[in-house]
Amino acid sequence: MATTIDEATIARDANRRMRRSGNIAGWAFAGPSVFIVLGLSFIPMIWAGYLSLTDSNLLSAGHFIGFANYAALAKDPTLRQAFTNTLLLAVMYLPVGLAAGLGVAILLNQKIKLIGFYRTCFLVPFVASAAAEGLLFGFIFDPDFGIVNAGLQAVGLPRQGFLQDPSEALAVLAIVYFWTQFGFNIVIYLAALQDIPEEVLEAASIDGAGRWAKFWHVTVPTVRPVTIFLLVWGLIDVFQFFDLVYTTTRGGPLNSTVTLVYYIWQLAFNFFTAGYGAAVAYVLFFTSLIVTVGALAFGRRRRIAL
Amino acid sequence: MTSEQALRPGPGVDMALHRARIEEAERRMRRSGWRRRLPQRGHLVLLPLSIIVVLPFVWMILTSFMTDTEINSIPPPLWPHHLYTGGYSAVLASSDFPYWFLNSLIVSGAAVIAQLVLCSMAGYAFARIQFRGSSVMLILLLATALIPFQLTVIPTFVIFHDIGLINTLGALIVPQLTSALGIYLMYSFFQSFPRELEEAGRIDGCNRLQVFWRVVLPLAKPALAALGIITFIYAWNDLFWPLIAITSSRTFTVQVGLTTFQGEHITHWSQIMAGTTLTTVPVLLVFLFGQRRFIQAITGAVKG
Question: Of A99, B12, B103, B227, which has the most beta carbons under 10 Å away?
Fold first, then answer.
């Protein structure tokens, strides 16, 4: 009797000691990271919410002005332009980016030679910096000295303004953006395709499925979760479009390439209307949050329905 | 009971053997040349496409060795007449490029070292140590992935300004010391890490830190390599925050420095392309060197 009590006490004691040492060790290991990541995200996020209700000029706190910034941004033509441009970029890039990514991934998902070489080539633009790529494409599409116009002239086509033409600049940026990003789609799709068991495709073949039938009824449904992920990822990425604009057009000509983040940057760090910039940033945040949650919910519903 | 267990091969051993056999079989098949009979038509699309994709970089390197007169002639030559290095010497001598390059190396190097230490420690704690608040903290950490930097950048600037970090490399290093993505990568790695090894370490009398340092980390090299590579690439390429946090030329990173070439040297394309090449080479070397790990990291982050 006495011995069992003793054993229970010892066990409880050991347990408590374990838990306490776990608490100390756990926080010692995770504490610095938790402190830095949470401190640099949630605190500024709440602060930005407060700033958006003031007329802060970045370096002074400013006065509380209620929802005046939000009222102003509803009527801001540049913001509307930035929204339209960002959405246009998404519409121009995403469908092509996903389709091309899946197409190339299917080609790469064969036991062929040089697969490593191809994958490297497609990923290089994704890895190099957007600043360098912006400068490079500013040069390639330069109306006077660029190689593209030289090529157009050589085959007898008219020279184009490209990034200096308000009606072409955004489309050129979408092309450059496609070039920088679709390697990522390829790699993610390829990883998903490699997870499809070969027996499934073989079974489909035995059942008499042709190339297209296999594509639509086996490949596409299997990679649907990945497609939704890439769609959400791509949308978030387009919503944050900045580097390429800054290194090529700086929003011009005639605001034809102003994007949301470029506009936020301008408002806060160029025009020093930080309070208003924070309000625009909050609108961007909620828009991308709604889009993300919406796309994920849509993806889940579809998967259950099927 | 224990003797029976000892006689039976453990499940881990069995899997390893199994895998080794499959690998051996594959190697034999490869040697017999079975691959050659498989369809190779994909090359008709893949070869031209992959060349088109890297062509802009080839053009960048070629023009960095051309003179401005060559570049500006219409039509431009497709190949430099001779290896002109004036663009490189101009960019290295007449701009602050050497400072920018060094600053980028310092910031990226510090980010890599700090994240290897801090992310692996945090990831290990969340995967292995039971401590109060761990699950809530993990969820909060992952939730920060939904907060765009554009939302937090204005207050972050104000905070860094108030503590006097603006216009120093510290302003660039502090936000890169650790990351939610890095913690998540290490967390998912440690979750699939065999517990037996740590227990062996504990029995040998090591404390948690010693177990982590001597037993766990040496075996986590693949995950650490992946984390180090993506951290370096991300830190090296970052433009948005350095552009905001740094105002004096000698403290710029290469990416910020590059943007000052735009407009200013508009006709000196040779010089600009030399600078762009020098900026791209380090990140390409890291990528080519650690491509396998890089792909593992990005696909692992997605699948998890």
Answer: B227
